Amino acid sequence: MVVNSNSLKVCVVGLGNVGHPTASYIHENGYLVYGYDIDPQKTSQINPITAFCEWEKVPECNIYVVCVNTGWKNGKPDMSNVFDACQKIAEKNKVKPLICIESTVAVGTCRKVAEMFDEVYLAHVPHRFWAGDPHKHGVKQVRVIGALDHESMVKAKNFYESMGIPLYPVSSLEVAEMAKITENAYRFVQIAFVEQLRLLCEKHNIPFKEVRESANTKWNVELLEARDGIKGECLPKDIRYLATLGEAPLLQGAIEADRKYIEHLKTKKLVSA
To answer: How far is it, in rounded angstroms, from Cα 254 to Cα 246?
Structure first.
């Protein structure tokens, strides 16, 4: 089955750091693309794509790519933006749509989305976009893809492969969800380790930089830099998504190590001021 991009309408829901370049990339590959975001500033900055702030104005589409933010609220994963977006799609579409969720979500989220629809093709294709280097880590890089069923997998694969995006298919939605949060949790643990190592070095007056560089001469060691704490929206949130799945002392320890490291930096800054 070959996708005819000229006959399909695509709506990208959420036009932030991930959604904006995703919509542009899909447009560049010949699809008729619409955008939706509640922020008028974002919809006004995505020319030549037609974008709307009012959901009622978005035409019914064949494919929806969900790129909304997810969060952490009251000690729990907050998937409300994903659920709200998919509920809007469910209410709009009279034909069976393909929904590709690129947002990073807690395990079990996509299965709950499927329950909102009488009929739906659904895939989880978590993004790996990094705004720090969009040329090397942009839209077109290998993606994990999991789907609701075989037909959903076929349709989603055809869509992404028609744009030259390489895919790594997995057996279920849950594997794709787990893989994505594992990527970010692993990175968090790596950074938290060197943060704790730096504090130990400082405590014993041992130069951390020299320890790091010397340890990294071993072929299977790659210690990262310890900078100003783990910031941003993704890593701190996603390690917590993983830690909610059961007892996770290592993950909780990494979260605590980062908290203490940031606290140490603040104290050090106050003392030196």
So the answer is: 15
